[in-house]
Structures are given as structure tokens and as C-alpha cells.
# Entry
Amino acid sequence: MPSVSVIIPTYNREFFLKECVESVLTQTLNDFEVIVVDDGSTDGTEELLKRYKDDLQYIKQEQKGPSSARNTGIKSSSADWISFLDSDDLWLPDKLIAQIKFLEDNPGCKICYTEEIWYRNNKRVNPAKKHKKYSGWIYPKMLPLCIISPSSVLIHRSVLDQVGLFDEELPACEDYDLWLRIAVHFPIWLLLQQLIIKRNGHSGQQSQKYWGMDRFRIQTLVKLLDSGELTKENVQATTDILQGKCNIMANGSKKRGKAGEASYYSSLARKYCERP
# Structure
């Protein structure tokens, strides 16, 4: 049995996919399996991956979104440790071995992630301060926006058994949702090495596809507040962030002439802020 299952979800990213797959196959750790889940691509993805038929498992499904693609990969995997790689990202050669060494040095760790190198439109850029990463019991630090890239994570299967998989009802921010659900129950540890390359700014990204990403984050925050699993301190932190995001969405809806939508977000903020 391999020590790590590497899951690559993809949709119409033939242009990026060869480099992505090669960045896994050239890892200095070689004890892993690779599962590529093609979420209904209509480009040359399937033909491209034929050259790697001896190196990976290829699964094609009808288009259902990134949550479904990752979940399909998880359900088809065999290792205790699971790692994700978005098909527009790259791993540096020591990514997996550095994380495995971290696990050996920290035997209680169930999930860890790494620092990142960012490119936007083929130019290296520095992440903004709001993207600063943290380590340990970091639930409150994760509430404003997603600070963990799926491509940087190594996670034990037992964590997913406990909290569940990616929420397939969320068309975007599904990673924000899962990491927060995990952070309620587990510390999430950060490796300070920059071990992945994120390629941002292209049209295929979820953030380019949907307006008002906070509406999906609001769904997650409401779900967490209704779960009954948060500490008193985390309830307050979550409520504060929810109120801010609802206000942003209400104001944006007013500007777009969506009075009903604006009213919905305003009433949602009041409902949770007025809770005893």
C-alpha cells in the first residue's frame, strides 16, 4: 500500500496538466499513488494522460464540480495519508518528503500544509498580508478567507472520516468550508518552506467564475454556527465575521438593485447577532 494518495482534480486544463503531473512524478519521495479525476473535460485531457497510464489512475466523470472530483478521488484512494494538487498548481520536488519528515517529527499531527510561491499572469508576486498563514489551533485566523491551498495539504484519512468530505453543494469556497470544519477539532500545522507553486489569474479559476464569493463563505459560517460544535469563543468570532460578510453582501446587492437579496443578508446578520 502506498504511503500517500495524491488526488488531482481537473477540468479542461490540458495546458497546465502535463507540468502538474510531472511535478508529482518527480517527487523525491516515491511511495505514493496518483489519481487524476477528470470532471468532464472536453479538451485533450484524456489523450494527454494516456502517456502516463502506467504512472497514475485516471477516472473520468460527468461534470459535477471540484468538490465532487476531489471526493471521487478520496473514495478511490488507498493510502492513510491524502494529498491534493489542483491541476493549475505545481509541487516543488521535496514537497511530499518534507511533509512526511514533519509527520515523523510530530507524531500527533493529523493535517499539515505549507507556504507557497505565487505567480499571477506568469509573473511572481507576493501574497497580500491578509493571506498570512498560521499554525496550530487556527480556527479564528481562518474565518475571514481561505488561507490554506488544497495543493499544500497533507491530511490523515481519519480526519475526513470524522468531519466529512468536501461539500458538493458549494460551487466555490468548498476548501474554506472543509478546512474550517477540520479546524474546529484539530490543530493544523504549517511548514514554513515554500513547497508549492500557485498559478493565479487565469480564466479557469473558480474565483474568476463566480461573483460575490462571500455568499458561499456565509453558507459555511451559518452551517458552523448551527452545528453546536463551536466553543463560546469561536461562536463569537464566527458571528462577528458573519455579520461583516452579510453587510458586504447586503450593500453589494443594493447597488445591483437586488432589494430582496439585500434584505435577506441583513436579516441573516440580525438573526445570528441577536442570538443569546
